[in-house]
């Protein structure tokens, strides 16, 4: 092209991805076409294909952004010494911060149903993460720090049920809000609602 | 018709609704046409319209099945005397049992995004239910039974984050399973994971 399109914002892969994820969350991944995306961006489909080869590749980039964040927290948890319950609390707290920081990406991840190769791969990584959590719960139970009267897999699911609920209600605001929510999740999960419990 | 269709199961509204809800959950409400439903049921669209005037009416019946169950529990909670924390526990336990019993209906309800009149009405009833929960948490906090260091609306959302996570992982099995899960949710929510907490 000889005429630069002045005044129209250009897109790099990152800004394109952000718009795509927003659209996928609004209309569903299956319900969004590359045509819809090109209309939303105000650029041609071939301009999109300049950055990314397919809609599925956009999905892969998006869900990996969420999963990579969660697995980085898991890796840093693995570096810690000490009791399993403290490592579990570190993992829960870090996961809340990842959700708050990468909310649209995690929202998309949690709605993935497994209809494509990318979606199945994401579900497999989610299961791997769930296993890490369940293993930590088991270890903390073996160390006598977690109540033994709830199945560890159920405990892990309930705690991450709280964490994942953020996608339904958390509104990113000032910087401290995410840390406050992480505190709230840890208080409720580890100490319970009841005073004197 | 003069020839009864022997060997093909007939549908009443209830069985038709069950198939519709399953399909809505698999493909999304927006992604499911009455044509899809007629193919799945093996009956004509006009046979469906004999039972129900529109796809949206099927959605309304389905989400009301979920919401009515939750509001019945809320009404029975309201009849109880005693401390707010005990009423809250009754509401949480009852909600888990409703989810377990009406799982496909609640799954559909929790995925509703508010694009139609029926969806907006369902979201309004969900907000009303959330307010009831938050009010109970506030009352229990005022009575000194719930930790005052977490915002009551956040507490309410986290507890129902646990409850609602059932749609992701609960598999209906033998009769006692739902009661066990309800116990687990109440233990984790009210007493916390930590032993000696």
From TrEMBL, chains A, B:
<dbReference type="Pfam" id="PF00440">
    <property type="entry name" value="TetR_N"/>
</dbReference>
<protein>
    <submittedName>
        <fullName>DNA-binding transcriptional regulator, AcrR family</fullName>
    </submittedName>
</protein>
<dbReference type="InterPro" id="IPR009057">
    <property type="entry name" value="Homeodomain-like_sf"/>
</dbReference>
<dbReference type="InterPro" id="IPR041490">
    <property type="entry name" value="KstR2_TetR_C"/>
</dbReference>
<feature type="domain" description="HTH tetR-type">
    <location>
        <begin position="10"/>
        <end position="70"/>
    </location>
</feature>
<dbReference type="Pfam" id="PF17932">
    <property type="entry name" value="TetR_C_24"/>
</dbReference>
<dbReference type="InterPro" id="IPR001647">
    <property type="entry name" value="HTH_TetR"/>
</dbReference>
<dbReference type="GO" id="GO:0000976">
    <property type="term" value="F:transcription cis-regulatory region binding"/>
</dbReference>
<feature type="DNA-binding region" description="H-T-H motif">
    <location>
        <begin position="33"/>
        <end position="52"/>
    </location>
</feature>
<dbReference type="InterPro" id="IPR050109">
    <property type="entry name" value="HTH-type_TetR-like_transc_reg"/>
</dbReference>
<dbReference type="GO" id="GO:0003700">
    <property type="term" value="F:DNA-binding transcription factor activity"/>
</dbReference>
<dbReference type="InterPro" id="IPR036271">
    <property type="entry name" value="Tet_transcr_reg_TetR-rel_C_sf"/>
</dbReference>
<keyword id="KW-0238">DNA-binding</keyword>
<keyword id="KW-0804">Transcription</keyword>
<keyword id="KW-0805">Transcription regulation</keyword>
